[in-house]
Amino acid sequence: MNKPGRIVRTILGVGMVGFGLSGCVKDQVIGGPIAQIGFQHLSKVRLNVASINIKSNYKGPIDAPNVEQRFSTPPEQAMFNWAMTRLVAVGGPENTGIANFVIQDGSVIETRLQKTKGFKGMFAYEPTTRYDATAKATMSITKDKSGATGTIRVTSKRSIEVSENATLAQREQAWMELVEKLMADFNTQMDVQIKGYMSRWVAKP
Question: What global pTM score does this model have?
């Protein structure tokens, strides 16, 4: 039995960035049966802020090579779900701080791969398509009454190759696994960055 795909690489990037982010909330249009990437099993990130704003600055094209619009849960929606599920504002009435979670990139790029030519290529099923997914977001805290501010940035990248004989169901399963692994990386790096650079705003359980 041929497997639908295999994860071939992971690239992670994190770092401190500047301030002044802006954007508007963007609704996702998802067709067909919806399989959601869930984060309910993870602990809440309790922030000592008055409110949390979740926005998207990503405006992905609907044409090739971008194909995230074909995913039941594209990276942009998965990041939105992550923030909605994990981030919680627990600041009291005297708190003025605001946390801003801003999605910067949620793309999936499809690349056609060359098959082995000649007699050998006629008798072997090979990966013919690669999907490169990116999840990139920043989180900043501003308007704290103490005057303190902070911003973190996380970028997670994953790729998967899909065989030419994969069925539609197998291809969709490969896409789901791609986003699951992408978001597992994203979640891990967010936890590291929040603990490392935003610990002053994290409320104790």
Answer: 0.79
